Amino acid sequence: MSFARRAWVVAWKDMLVERRSKETLNALVFFSLLLLFVFEFTLGPDRERMVQVLPGLLWLGFILSGLLALGRTFVGERENDCWDGLLLAPGDKSAIYLGKLAGNLAIMLTVEALLLALFTIFFDVDFLPALPGLAVIIALGTVGFAAVGTLFAAMTASVRAREVLFPVLLLPVQVPLLLATVKATEAVLAGESLGTVAHWLKLLAAADLVYFVAGMLTFDFILEG
Amino acid sequence: MIADPLIRATGLAKIFGTTRVLNGVALDVHGGEAVALLGSNGAGKTTLLRILATLCRPSKGTAVVAGHDCVNDAEGVRKNIAFVGHGAHVYEELTARENLKFWMALGGGPMAPSTLLDALGAVELDRHADDQVRTFSAGMKRRLTLARLVLAPPRVLLLDEPSAGLDQRAWKWVEDYLRTLKESGSAVLMTTHSFNRGLEVADRIAILASGRIAFDAPRGDLASSEVERLYALHTEEPA
Predict the structure, then answer these.
(1) Alpha-carbon distance B153 to B157, whole Å?
(2) Of A4, A140, B18, B134, which residue is least crowded by CB atoms under 10 Å?
């Protein structure tokens, strides 16, 4: 069984489980709606103020919903001792990491697309002209966030206080990503081209690479405990 | 010349915090042999199996399974064993067929649809092949776990309370499977609380008490009442 095939099998399983249970997706949709209501009430009708804080709000929404999604990555594996099953499966464990990461990316990108649509409705923002540039930033930001989030979710999966520990560990590591994504999003929404934010995109790509490689190299040790 | 044992535990100790669960366990299980491991609750039976299955590291001592060290060559051990623990290793949202397919795909076992269905048929779950596992009883989940053994018979089988949740028919199937597995040269180590189930198929009986193997002898013609007496002798706390 090839490495890619094993990773695909894990991602297929996670997506099938989520499609049937809809546990994470339902919670995230509801959470996103609540978040937008809070933003709407906080900002009020002041459009100028809203435009200023929109990139930050957008990424706050992505990060908070992402935290919920990532935190649940290995919860299902604890039921019926499936974690032991994963551990006992012979072969490179980084394939499991890759599969889990792919499953997380699928869920997070779905929720982010939904959040963008909800922002359009709630705040009457037209993302369409900036969408190609925004898609690149969102993709780069989400890959980095999910790469390190999947790793930390595995690390905290067997810890009793994982709900507290997971964001406490993850958020500080996300600071460079958050800074780059918010700054790049701000520029793109203001009508600037991707070329003008190339330095931020390079930072995002570099962070993605570092987090992904770190995840692939260390997942085996983390799974073994 | 006697072949090396497929399972060899030497001086195994495991300490959780201040609790010493295992304290110098020595046990050999040869190919073609099944050993029933008895012991009271908390005696360390599951811990011993988990160490041999590479799910837990010993605090002291060595464990070698199928010629591979459980600590230094866990991957080598995993290629040769199957472990059926308390958990069924099943995903509730997937069907029986999908569960089987997933684990076979991950472990590199056979995945042909007819092969999967045959394995489910062997444990009488073929009629439920496309039912989600969330609708299964505990016994059915256990049988689904056992279906994986049909698809990939291991050289070393570690069973933790294999009779738990199984009805007579399913247990009869397990006994037949274990006999076939032994005939093929595999080694079986199973824990049990039952003085009937599990002992029938065992060649040896070992009793784990005070963190050590307190009794280890061929089952021979020992009646279950005799096993019960030996068990009481080795495990009962002095008044």
Answers:
(1) 8
(2) B18
